[in-house]
Amino acid sequence: MLSLLRFVFPFTLALLILPQNLLAEEAGAKGESAETKGGEAPEPFDAEHIFGFVDGSDIGEKGEQEIESVTVGRFGRIGGYNNAANETSYRNTMTDNIRLSFGTLTDYYNIHNVAGYGNISAATFSGLTAEFRVNVLNRATSPFGMSISFNPEWRQFDPDSGARAQNYALPVTLLLDKELIEQKLFIAASASYAPSFLRVNDSYEHDDSVTVTSSASYQVVQNIFAAAEIRHENMAVNGDVIAHALYVGPSLYYKVLPNLSVKVAWAAQIPDVGAKSLDLTAYDRNQFELHLAFSF
C-alpha cells in the first residue's frame, strides 16, 4: 500500500510542477495558431468537473452561481448492502479565489443481513453541508492549479449504517490540477483528511479517513471528456487504522449546454499492495456517481 502511494501521488505531483514547455509543446503550437487565426487567445476553460470522483481546482468566475447535485451509489459488501447518497448544493463564487456553498444531504439505505448492521430499507433527510473553498493558485497563471476545501457536515444518521446518531465531520481537501495540452488533456491529484465524530451511547466515537487520488482526463470530442482515476482510502477509529481499500475506474463528462453538464463515474475495488485481497466488510465492491451541474 505505502509503496503504491509513494509512486502514484508523487508521480502526479511531478507532472504538475514540471515546466509547462516540457509537457505541452503541442498546446503551445495550438495556442499560437489560435491567436494567429482569431487574434485572441482561447476562452478560459473550467475543468472542475471533468475528472472522476475528485474535483479540479477551478471554482468558477467571480459572481458565478451554480446548483450542483451529486448522487453516489455504493454496493457489493458482504451481505446485502446498498446505499445511495445525494448532496444538492448552491454554490456562489464570491471573489476571484473564494467560493461558498450550502446544501442538503439525503440517503437511501437498503441493508439486510450485514454483520454489525441493523436491517433497514428507507429514504432519509440526513443533514446539512457547507463548503468554503479557496483557490490558492490559478492554473491559468501559475504552473499548476491549487485549491483548499473546508467542508463541514452535520448528519442525524450514521452515513454508513443508516442508524439514527448525531454525526459531525470536517473534511479538508487539497486539490491540484494541471492542463498538459490546451483544453485537451488534464491531470489532477487530491489529498483529503476527514475527521468525524459520531455520538454513541452519550459519548463520541472519533473516526478518521485519509484519501489520496490521482486522475487524468482527455477531451475525446468537443465537450466530452473521458477520465481514469486511482484512489486509495484509509479508515481509523479512535486513532487506530482498521481498514484500507484501493479503487480504480473510468468516468465520462458531457457539457450538454454552456451552463449545464453531466458526469457519470464508476469505481471498483481492487486488491491493494498491502492487503492483496478485497475488503468487503468496511468498503464497497463498486461505487457509482451521477453528477449534475447547472451554472447561472
Question: What's the number of helices?
Answer: 3
User: Domains counted in the coordinates: how many?
Assistant: 1
Q: Please provide the ordered H/E string of secondary-structure elements.
A: HHHEEEEEEEEEEEEEE
Q: Helix coverage percent of residues?
A: 10-25%
Rg, Cα atoms, Å = 20 Å
CATH topology name, in short, is Porin
The overall pLDDT average reads 86
Structural class: mainly beta
Q: What is the number of strand segments?
A: 14
The largest sheet is:
14 strands, antiparallel
**What is the CATH H-level superfamily?**
monomeric porin ompg
How would you describe this structure in keywords?
296 residues, mainly beta, Porin, 14-stranded antiparallel beta sheet, 3 helices, 14 strands, 11% helix, 58% strand, globular, disordered N terminus
